[in-house]
Amino acid sequence: MKFANVIGTVVLTKTHDRLPEGSMRLVQPTDTSGKKKGIAIVAYDLLGSSPGEKVIIAQGSSCRQGPQLNTSPVDAIIAGIVDTIEQEGKILYQKKEV
Amino acid sequence: MKFANVIGTVVLTKTHDRLPEGSMRLVQPTDTSGKKKGIAIVAYDLLGSSPGEKVIIAQGSSCRQGPQLNTSPVDAIIAGIVDTIEQEGKILYQKKEV
Amino acid sequence: MKFANVIGTVVLTKTHDRLPEGSMRLVQPTDTSGKKKGIAIVAYDLLGSSPGEKVIIAQGSSCRQGPQLNTSPVDAIIAGIVDTIEQEGKILYQKKEV
Amino acid sequence: MKFANVIGTVVLTKTHDRLPEGSMRLVQPTDTSGKKKGIAIVAYDLLGSSPGEKVIIAQGSSCRQGPQLNTSPVDAIIAGIVDTIEQEGKILYQKKEV
Amino acid sequence: MKFANVIGTVVLTKTHDRLPEGSMRLVQPTDTSGKKKGIAIVAYDLLGSSPGEKVIIAQGSSCRQGPQLNTSPVDAIIAGIVDTIEQEGKILYQKKEV
């Protein structure tokens, strides 16, 4: 899974009939330090993430696990919201408490 | 899912016998600002998109969901037509009304 | 699906026991103008394409649709032979009649 | 499968309901000499790897084999811990004994 | 399928319980002329290939076809050993007889 920052929202007019209504998030893949890597993509969000949160995204057939999306043409989802990234004893990222 | 602009149409002479007749669109992947990213590819269009529209494309096995394409050798489809892309409260893209 | 030019043939000595005999084509991925993009790969050809033809290739699990290849370790096939590529009213490519 | 070094751990707050609890490792893909290649990603760890170990990672649907992850939105796992990499009679890497 | 040269062997200590024992080959992807392209990866070898042989590798779910690997976390296999690569009537590669 890749790291990404949730940066916005995408609204669709016409969609594939297997694409359930729900939040389509604009996510920017990043490295561990938060630096942008590649272009922003659209990920289906089952977790209720908010812009500004760091998440991990899963891509490919792994996105369609579970009853909501298993016959859906979704190739990227938000699989988790990141709390902490730790590397060699150092905290690289810590989610701020709200 | 990636952003792409619908820029044309592709006609095939001979095709795989599991490839249903239908619109094969020429789509140019882009970033959120509409800048070209990578080469144009061919995506199966179940949505009746038109050249000039901004869409999201799904790739891989996620393309074969639903009865029309589930045994078809299609690795890219148009999964939705974009209405709005919003980033940090700013509208990056808004589909023009016709 | 990506555009590619059929440029040759590959013969194998020893193969995976689920790989059916048949034509393994050497194909060079291209952009819409025919310019090379990336390295030449090997695609299974169910369509009887000939060197010099422009095709679309499908990759990943989408290759294994249909009875001939559905349990076969094939990750790229020729999914169609291109007749015409049209972009914004202009013909970018037109297959020559033989 | 690609080579990677285990360099840290990732903790998630909210996760997809099909993602089993367990160790999410921060892994840095490398070449055979250990040089970084691409960005660090998150891989599910069923093997109890430790930071500092060289592993091979599997990506895509191949990650979901076995009962723990087969309906899970995981697109990268640690598939093995490397003992030795040998190239043309030379040992490129040998795991240190503890 | 991509071309690769078999250049070595990888031994694992601890492995996923669905990974059958067998030869894990170090393979270097190449173009048709044998020039290195990208980093060396690990491919499962069902064919008994030897270092020095040119092979084609299949990646993704296509690797898990057949009874030995169908529930295995393998994302790259050696799908065939190359005898000849022919491009526009010219032999680019011919396996040497032993």
What can you tell me about this protein's structure?
- The structure is a homopentamer of 98-residue chains.
- With 98 residues, the first copy, chain A, is mainly beta.
- Helices cover 0% and strands 51% of the residues of chain A.
- Chain A has strands at residues 2-15, 23-30, 41-45, 54-59, 76-87, 90-94.
- Chain A has a 6-stranded antiparallel sheet with strand order 3-2-1-4-5-6, with no helix packed on it.
- Chain A is elongated.
- Chains in contact: A-B, A-D, B-C, C-E, D-E.
- At the C-E interface, β1 and β3 of C face β4 and β5 of E.
What is the element layout, followed by pairings?
The structure is a homopentamer of 98-residue chains.
Chain A: E1 2-15, E2 23-30, E3 41-45, E4 54-59, E5 76-87, E6 90-94
Antiparallel strand pairs in A: 1-2, 1-4, 2-3, 4-5, 5-6
Short account of what is shown:
The structure is a homopentamer of 98-residue chains. Chain A is 0% helix and 51% strand.
What keywords describe this structure?
mainly beta; 98 residues; OB fold (Dihydrolipoamide Acetyltransferase, E2P); 51% strand; homopentamer; 6 strands; 0% helix
